[in-house]
């Protein structure tokens, strides 16, 4: 398993290379709204939302080891709270609470974090299987209640969000949403990176590997679970708020649908669970598969997703990241040998 | 307090429905207790069983009670295949892998259901003549009564199988202590295959029974997964009697919830009961620590 061990000095070179690639990708993304069609911009925006969903779910499931099946609830609630603030009358709220778009989006994310903060101490009394099913049930309860509260959510028909960020004829609302989503995605990736590389990330990994052992060594499991849950829910909520204000339409059945949980899970499994780059690579692959496959085998996309995650988790549990790493590190270690 | 006629009738209907819930949950409980796997595709297996009965009924007019037997045979095969092809790689490998494999399977079944049968809800009819029973304080409708009796008979048969047959004893031994069972010469790999086969067949049977009472669509899987898991939590993992009681409790509370809070809250009530019990007493209201008792 030589590829798992990092030689001293190699890490710095690899990090530099990765940073370089990341900078190039960001530069390319900045040009996207001006160089491609609106629909392609929308597609890449969806990809960025996928990254936010995947990175945030991976923090909770991959690093802290808490398999939540309720991620969609936080995505959807973020979207709804932000929509209530930008379009209060459609949700039955007084006009006076209306806020500009950017603060509304942030409050959407914060609302999801707050929900996580309140239910966390309760739901984390559950572990393992019970936690997974408990979060699935929680998301189902939230969806059913929101669907029933027509006054707040528009019920099954949903409602249109009123927001316009366009700058004259030059930059459309969609383009502005693209840049906001890009900024939010970079923030998600950087903040998550700092967390998992820091002492908090170490604590999360410790409870993931062996909760009892970590606990007996003075690591408080609840503290790290809560940390991961709240941060993860914030980014999921922010992603939902951004996506809702890009599509300008919101509906409990689609915005809170279990599909968003499935997306997050598939992205992380494809990319490599518990690895930092995994969800980012996974989002790219998933976006390609989702669109490529729906053209070839239309109607079977869910089944293909199901087959893919089964194959990956059994035969390639480290995902795309594991594959690439194996290949790259083998290549570099070959050159190292040649130098000596 | 004197219950109104409506409330009495609602409770009776809830009990009759609860029998089927218990049957549906028994398979989930067995697999959880013995293999330590939560079958996230259990609700979707139930949906497939229901469709087998519905399709047979639609094509030939044969009662879903016969369709149920067909569904059980086919679903047993599916369970055996699933264990032999996929789950054997991941069982005993911790939490994440089996959960994700079964999640994937649920997606596949849901998608196939939608593509093959369309997204609309379908239903079957009991297809045999008979009349309900008037008890004075409540009325037992014919299909509800028949499905309840069949469900309870199947639960009793499963219990007898576990209690008195050699294979059943081996299954319970594996549930109690996997390693010790292996030392006693029990082929635990074979036990897993049989357990998943039985669990899947029971899901199929419950689906076929439900198809006579409620419309079934390809998306009912998640909702029935949560209901059946709620029953398992209420009754305690691996306890046959607990599962029966849990099913009845869920059936009644769900129906009362729908009566007093409105139909939209039928599922909310069951989910809240479920979350409540899960948080207060995760080992179940009636259960011990699991195992095949």
Outline of chain B: globular
Q: Care to count the β-strands of chain B?
A: 2
Q: Which stretches of chain A of 5+ consecutive residues score pLDDT under 50? A: 1-9, 336-340
CATH class of chain B equals Mainly Alpha
CATH architecture annotation of chain B = Orthogonal Bundle
Helical coverage of chain A, percent range? over 70%
C-alpha Rg of chain A (nearest Å): 21 Å
Tally of contiguous helical segments of chain B: 11
Sketch the topology of chain A as an H/E string, one letter per element: HHHHHHEHHHHEHHHHH
3D structure, described in words:
The complex is a heterodimer of chains A (340) and B (293). Chain A has a domain at 44-256. Helix content of chain A is 76%, strand content 1%. Chain A has helices at residues 10-35, 38-63, 71-86, 101-123, 128-148, 150-153, 173-197, 199-209, 211-216, 221-247, 252-255, 259-271, 278-296, 301-315, 319-339, and strands spanning 159-160, 249-250. A two-stranded antiparallel sheet of chain A has the order 1-2. In chain A, helix 2 packs parallel to helix 7 and helix 3 crosses helix 10. Chain B has a two-stranded antiparallel ribbon with strand order 1-2. Chain B has 11 helices and 2 strands; from the N terminus they run ααααββααααααα. Mean pLDDT of chain B is 88; it is low at 288-293. In chain B, helix 1 packs across helix 9. Chain B has one domain (5-280): ABC transporter involved in vitamin B12 uptake, BtuC (Orthogonal Bundle), CATH 1.10.3470. By secondary structure, chain B is mostly helical. The longest helix of chain B has 31 residues, at 5-35. In chain B, a hairpin with a 4-residue loop joins strand 1 and strand 2. At the A-B interface, helix 5, helix 12 and helix 14 of A face helix 4, helix 9 and helix 11 of B.
């Amino acid at each position: 398993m030589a590829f798992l061990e990092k030689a001293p000095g190699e890490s710095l070179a690899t990090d530099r290379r990765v940073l370089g690639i990341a900078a190039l990708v960001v530069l390319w993304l900045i040009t996207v709204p001006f160089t491609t069609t609106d629909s392609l911009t929308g597609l890449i925006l969806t990809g960025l939302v996928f990254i936010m969903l995947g990175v945030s779910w991976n923090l909770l499931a991959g690093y802290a080891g808490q398999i939540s099946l309720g991620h969609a609830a936080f995505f959807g609630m973020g979207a709804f709270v932000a929509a209530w603030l930008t379009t209060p009358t459609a949700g039955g709220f007084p006009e006076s609470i209306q806020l500009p778009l950017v603060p509304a989006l942030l409050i959407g994310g914060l609302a999801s974090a707050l929900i996580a903060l309140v239910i966390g101490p309760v739901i984390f009394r559950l572990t393992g299987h019970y936690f997974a099913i408990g979060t699935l049930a929680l998301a189902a309860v939230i969806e059913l209640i929101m669907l029933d509260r027509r006054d707040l959510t528009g019920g099954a028909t949903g409602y249109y969000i009123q927001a316009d960020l366009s700058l004259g004829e030059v930059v459309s609302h969609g383009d502005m949403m693209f840049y906001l989503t890009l900024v939010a995605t970079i923030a998600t990736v950087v903040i998550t990176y700092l967390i998992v590389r820091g002492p908090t990330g170490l604590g999360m990994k410790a409870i993931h590997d062996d909760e009892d052992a970590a606990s007996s060594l003075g690591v408080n499991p609840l503290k790290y679970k809560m940390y991961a849950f709240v941060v993860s829910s914030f980014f999921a909520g922010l992603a939902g708020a951004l996506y809702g204000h890009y599509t300008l339409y919101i509906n409990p059945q689609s915005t809170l649908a279990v599909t968003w949980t499935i997306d997050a899970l598939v992205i992380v499994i494809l990319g490599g669970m518990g690895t930092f780059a995994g969800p980012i690579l996974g989002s790219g692959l998933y976006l390609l598969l989702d669109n490529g496959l729906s053209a070839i085998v239309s109607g079977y996309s869910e089944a293909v997703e199901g087959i893919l995650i089964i194959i990956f988790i059994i035969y390639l549990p480290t995902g795309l990241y594991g594959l690439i790493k194996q290949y790259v590190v083998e290549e570099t270690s070959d050159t190292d040998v040649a130098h000596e | 307090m004197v219950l109104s006629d409506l409330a009495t009738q609602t409770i009776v209907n809830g009990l009759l429905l609860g029998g089927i819930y218990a049957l549906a949950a028994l398979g989930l409980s067995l697999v959880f207790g013995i293999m330590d796997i939560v079958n996230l595709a259990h609700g979707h297996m139930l949906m497939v069983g229901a469709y087998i009965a519905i399709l047979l009924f639609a094509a030939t007019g044969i009662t879903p009670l016969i369709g149920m037997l067909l569904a059980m045979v086919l679903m047993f095969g599916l369970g055996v295949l699933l264990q032999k092809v996929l789950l054997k790689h991941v069982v005993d490998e911790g939490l994440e892998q089996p959960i994700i494999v079964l999640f994937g399977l649920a997606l596949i079944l849901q998608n196939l259901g939608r593509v093959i049968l369309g997204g609309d809800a379908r239903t079957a009819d009991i297809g045999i003549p008979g009349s309900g029973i008037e008890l004075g304080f409540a009325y037992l409708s014919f299909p509800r009564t028949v499905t309840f009796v069949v469900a309870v008979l199947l639960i009793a048969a499963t219990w007898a199988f576990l209690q008195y047959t050699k294979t059943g004893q081996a299954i319970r031994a594996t549930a109690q202590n996997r390693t010790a069972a292996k030392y006693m010469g029990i082929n635990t790999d074979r036990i897993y295959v049989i357990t998943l086969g039985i669990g899947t067949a029971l899901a199929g049977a419950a689906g076929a029974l439900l198809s006579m009472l409620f419309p079934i669509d390809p998306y009912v899987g998640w909702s029935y997964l949560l209901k059946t898991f709620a029953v398992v939590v209420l009754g305690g993992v691996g306890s046959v009697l607990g599962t029966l009681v849990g099913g009845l409790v869920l059936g009644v509370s769900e129906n009362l919830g729908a009566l007093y809070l409105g139909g939209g809250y039928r599922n909310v009530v069951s989910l809240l009961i479920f979350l409540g019990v899960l948080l207060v007493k995760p080992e179940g209201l009636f259960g011990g620590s699991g195992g095949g008792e």
